[in-house]
Amino acid sequence: MTLIRTVERPLKDREAILECKNRDFYAVLVASTRREEERQRMESQQRKDGLVAKSRLMGAEDRGLGFGEELGFGDSGIKPKLNLKGSKIGEGVPIILVPSAFQTLITIHNVKEFLEDGVFIPTDVKAKQMKGPKPDCVTVQKKFSRDRVVTAYEVRDKPSALKPEDWDRVVAVFVLGKEWQFKDWPFKDHVEIFNRIIGFFMRFEDDSVESAKIVKQWNVKIISISKNKRHQDRAAALEVWEKLEDFVRSRSHA
């Protein structure tokens, strides 16, 4: 054994093995993180639902009513109906609209990674990774924030599927820069649209000026990202959140 050890030469040390060259475990990290976030989100929502139900039930008992009677339905068997009108934004989860066309940077395929994780993944790449049909709606939250109060937003790409009362909940739209995107919207023109809804136009920072020529005439926020420097995506996502939250606050106090 002594003779063997004298002629041995190390091929790899501990550090070289741990480097794992030519292997990328980022997808594993993202999947693991997402599962943990989803678990925490569900637990948080269950706690909130329980507190709301308990609060309403206690209030009903104080007035000598049953839970159904407290909501005004008695024992008639009528199911509650939500009133989505009567507030400045509209009661319910706020809605963000994105284009369904692939030629825009932000779509329903990649909006969650961009707004929640601060990472831009091209739509064609993300679409190939997704299993099953394209979702009609995804939910996004501002994750990278110190605020304890986190608002959830619904992201949709089919304005034609919105009910009249749903439009009261629409707070933002990612624009293509084409007038036809707003065809059949319940507004007079893009001036009225961007007075009621904040608009965002996503572009690559080295794109020609012509690509944003039309949207510069509109009241929208132009957000630029790099084609290759993904570490800069977070700043762009934060800019979207900052402008969106400022707009929502202004509408709430209007």
Automatic annotation (TrEMBL):
Short name of any one Pfam family annotated for the protein: CDC73_C
Location(s), subcellular: Nucleus
Keywords: Nucleus, Transcription, Transcription regulation
Alphabetized Gene3D superfamilies for the sequence: RNA polymerase II accessory factor, Cdc73 C-terminal domain
A single cellular component GO annotation: Cdc73/Paf1 complex
GO biological process: positive regulation of flower development; transcription elongation by RNA polymerase II; vegetative to reproductive phase transition of meristem
Keyword Lipid biosynthesis: no
Main location as per UniProt: nucleus
Residue stretches making up the Cell division control protein 73 C-terminal domain: 93-247
Protein family (similarity comment): Belongs to the CDC73 family.
Name of the protein in question: Cell division control protein 73 C-terminal domain-containing protein
Organism of origin: Eucalyptus grandis
